[in-house]
Each structure stands twice: as structure tokens, then as C-alpha cells.
Amino acid sequence: MPYYRITEGYKLVDFNNINNINKIRIQNAFSEHIKDYGDVETISLREYADLENGTSITLDQIETGDIPVIAGGRTPAYYIDEANRDGDVITISKSGAYAGYVSYHSEPIFSSDSFTIKAKKNSPYTTRQLYYLLKNKQDTIYNYSAGSVQKHIYISDMENFRIPRSTEASLNLLSVLKNEYEQKLKNELELQKQRNIKREFISNFVKNQKVSIETLGSLEEKKIIKISGGKRIPKELDYSPFETTHYYPTVGDFEDGGINLEKSKFIDDKTFEVIKRYELKESDVYISAAGTIGKVGVLPTVPEGYTVSLTENAHKVTANELLHRDYIAQILTADSIQQQLNHSATRTGTPKLSISSLKNIQIPFVDADMQKEFLEHIHTIDETINQLKNSL
User: How far apart are CA 255 and CA 234, in angstroms?
Assistant: First the structure.
């Protein structure tokens, strides 16, 4: 059972009665048998905290700004100009590969495909203390997510999540957890700050390059880049049910300028042979083009002999020696260019960005020396970011 360790469960629950809330019923039924906190008495999270769903957001509502949108991943989906939550709040991602991811935010955010947790006014715990208690159960919370195609976790899953009742014993436990998680939280907040510094540097760089602006289409006509799309798995084929040497990640796996291959699906040799022209190579920059528009990144390091194929929900820009791959990947994350990408997508149904619309996107085309100087500055910031990520 992937929730809490309980004793003599077979005596109290009919395990043949399977339904969507069985995990909550089991947890409630055995509240006195929970062993994870030793002898510390537990209580439902909703007794000490207010839980609130995020707000869905459409492309028509998006105006680029400084407020991070917290959705289904571990990093902000994008940035907009308004918040729907003040700082000092916990978010839990609701869907995708990281459904259940617990994060704390000291500054205002916009919660979309996530829900938030904040200590009640009369709660004996602060919101930050609740974060320590929940972060300590991160793996358990991940196990609350369910779904065969895409995992989901709901407020109802967490309202009854057991946390220690406020007692002298629980305060001793919190003291231990604070020692364990306080520095990690400080590093996570500093990571958020460094990402903002990087984003502002890129956006200001683009804003100052008013003379050297070119569309991606014109750069392709000059044979400086090549633009192409990804490929859907043919109807007669399917994902591989087991791990192979051919990754086939979804847009949900696009993360933090790379691809999280730990959660990626696979295709077999036969399927890869059919779509091998759509393999993502080292010289490529991907751009998500359906659902979440404008996720940008490059091929991560993969084992020798492994391949990564590009989903039909993304396009790619292939660089050459005149325009560095990493320059393209970084420039496309600028606020003004992200705004172009979002405004170029269709507004009906699932947002989609066509290749023809992508070709109209304008970017600064600067010489090799300026690209090098730009990337050196980015590299310095990325070193700090990577150190902080490794500490979490």
C-alpha cells in the first residue's frame, strides 16, 4: 500500500471495494494506526490549513510579467503580470509527471494547474512549518497521484492527509525537520531568485537589440537556421511497454531548458525506424507548440546509442555556425519573445503554434562576438543555478 504504513488493515476495510476515494477512506479508518510519526497524534491537514485550487488561464489572459505561473511541473511554466496568491504559500502540482510536487513561495505567484496550502489564522503551525511537514512526506504525496495516461492529484486527496497534532512532541519533531529542510528551502528560494536574474538579463538584452532584428523565417531563407516539426507516433504503432534505447518524451517532460528523461516514455526499434527523421539532435532547439506554448530547450545528455524523438506537439530550430544553438535557446525565453509565441498560437480549443507562425517570430541576430559575450554571462548565472539545484 503506497500511502501510510498501517496495521491489521484487512480487519477493517474491504479491499475488494475499489473506488477513487479508497485511499482516503483507508487513511481515515486507520488514523489511530499510523506509524510514520511514532507516538505523535495526527490530525487531517484541513484542520490546520486552507486548501484552494488554482485558476485555469488561457492565452488571451496572458501578458508577460514578473509573476511565476505554478502549474504541473517543478519550475514555473511561464511568467505573467498578475498574481492570484500572495507570498508565504505552499503549492502542490496537480497533474503531469510531477503531480504532487510540494514547493514553498515567499513571493506572490499565480497558481494554475496546482493548488495552494496556507496555515489557517488560528493554526498552531505557520505555513512554513506546514511546508516542512509536507516536504518530509514528498514521496508519500507523489504516491497519491493516480491516472493511467496522465497522473493527477486533487485537493480531496490532501485535505485528509495526516499531519501531527500540535503537541510538545510535534514541536520537537518540527525542530528536527527545520534543521533538515531550512537550508534546502533557503537554497530553493535563492534558486528562484537566480532564475529571475537570468530571465531579466535575457529580456533586457533583447530589449536593447532594436537594430539587429530578424524573423526566424528570414534566417531560414538565408540558410542560417532550419525550422521543422516533430512527429506523432503512427496510429498502427504505440509506445513501448518497456524501456528501450529510444526516448519519446512529451511536452510535460520538457523542463528547465532540457528534457526530464526519467519520466519519459519509450518507443521500440520498429517505431523509431518509421519516425527517425524527427530525432532531436545536439544542434537543435525545441519549442513546445501545443498546450503549453513556448517551452524551449535542448537535447540533454543521453547514453551512447540512445535516441530522443521529437513529439508532434513541438517544433525545432536547427542551428549552424553563424547562430549558436545555446544563443537561440536562451533568446527564445525572453519575455518579449515568449509574448510573441503566445500571441501567435491559435485561440480555439487546445492552443497550437504552427510552423508558419513560428517563422514570423522576431529575434535579435547579433554577431559571433556578441553571442559569445552573452553566453558567457548566462554561463556564470547557470553555474550558480546548477549548484543550487544540486543542493536540493
Answer: 25
Residue 251 contacts residue 260 (beta carbons within 8 Å):
no
Q: Please choose, from the candidates 379, 261, 285, the residue with its C-alpha nearest in 3D space to the C-alpha of residue 333.
A: 285
Sign of the four-CA dihedral 202, 205, 210, 214: negative
Which amino acid appears at position 145 of this protein?
A: S
Residue type, 22: N
pLDDT of 17 above 70: no
d(CA 131, CA 103): 8
Q: Give Dmax (Cα) for the chain.
A: 75
Q: Using CB atoms within 10 A of its CB, is residue 140 exposed (0-12), middle (13-18) or buried (19+)?
A: middle
341-387, pLDDT tens digit by residue? 999 999 788 899 999 999 999 999 999 999 999 999 999 999 999 99
How far is residue 313's CA from residue 231's CA, in Å, rounded to a whole number? 8
C-alpha cell at 164: 501531527
Split at pLDDT 50, 70, 90, the class of 148 is low
Give buried/exposed letters for 320-333 (b at 16+ CB in 10 A, else e).
eeebbbbbbbbbbb
For residue 82, give the amino acid letter: E
- Judge whether 246 and 272 are in contact, CB under 8 Å: yes
Measured CA to CA, the distance from residue 71 to residue 92 in angstroms comes to 9
Please state the pTM of the whole predicted model. Answer: 0.82
Helix (H) or strand (E) segment spanning residue 155: helix 155-159
Cα separation, 310 vs 290, in Å, equals 13
Classify residue 181 by its DSSP letter. H
Q: Are 157 and 21 in contact (CB under 8 A)?
A: no
